[in-house]
Design brief:
This protein is of the alpha+beta class. It is built from 8 helices and 5 strands. Strand 2 and strand 3 form a beta hairpin. The longest helix is centred in the C-terminal third of the chain and has 37 residues. The two termini are about 35 Å apart.
Length: about 220
């Protein structure tokens, strides 16, 4: 479950709606068969996505944060069960949906822009340290740094190719990469992605062990 809340939606609701419409189309195209429902958004406020367990939700966070028309956003990612249904994500429900809704309120209270829950308590403690730090680095980028980060982190270009595309020198891009801490952003994104996958696996294993134990006792 993936929720993205536009931080300044009340200041400029029409711009927020346009941004979420653009972002929804972009993420629908990117995830294609890795989403369980089309991305949907509430008017000028929040985008919601429902992905397969093998999909990488961090891609959505990076694509949104580094998009040229991006607005500041607050994200929550929750792994868990969703009730069967059809239609866009905004028309779905289930335990993961409800937990994501609660986590949005928690993120606002903490004034943090990325919270992640895997379902495994020990892993989630680590994610509480790493995920907000990633969001803070993304939020501190200048427009130029964001453009370079998009080419490197989203489009997976080499620094030399990014420099050629932007019409600047390779050293100029290298300096921007250092100042924007793009390597650190990439590292934190990888760490968050791996911890989420490990936490989900641990949570599934714990549930399976509990179910097998209950079955054995019943038998």
């Amino acid at each position: 479950m993936l929720f993205g809340d536009v931080a300044a939606s009340r200041v400029d609701a029409s711009r927020a709606s346009a941004w979420l419409r653009t972002l929804s189309r972009d993420l629908d195209r990117h995830y294609a068969n890795q989403r369980l429902a089309p991305f949907g958004f509430t008017q000028g406020d929040e985008i919601q996505g429902l992905l397969t367990v093998t999909a990488d939700p961090m891609v959505a966070v990076l694509r949104a944060a580094l998009h040229p028309h991006a607005m500041p956003m607050r994200w929550v990612i929750v792994a868990g069960r969703i009730e069967a249904g059809r239609g866009p994500t905004t028309q779905r429900t289930g335990p993961a949906f409800l937990q994501a809704r609660e986590l949005v309120a928690e993120a606002k209270k903490r004034r943090q822009d990325l919270l992640v829950r895997s379902g495994d308590a020990a892993t989630d403690e680590l994610l509480d340290d790493i995920a907000p730090a990633l969001a803070a680095l993304l939020g501190g980028l200048t427009d130029r740094q964001r453009a370079i980060a998009q080419l490197i982190l989203v489009d997976a270009l080499r620094q030399s190719d990014a420099a050629q595309l932007l019409g600047v020198s390779r050293p100029t891009v290298s300096v921007a990469v250092e100042r924007a801490r793009i390597r650190e952003i990439a590292g934190l994104a990888r760490a968050t992605r791996r911890l989420l996958a490990q936490g989900v696996a641990a949570a599934v294993a714990a549930r399976t062990a509990s179910t097998n134990g209950s079955t054995a006792r019943t038998a």
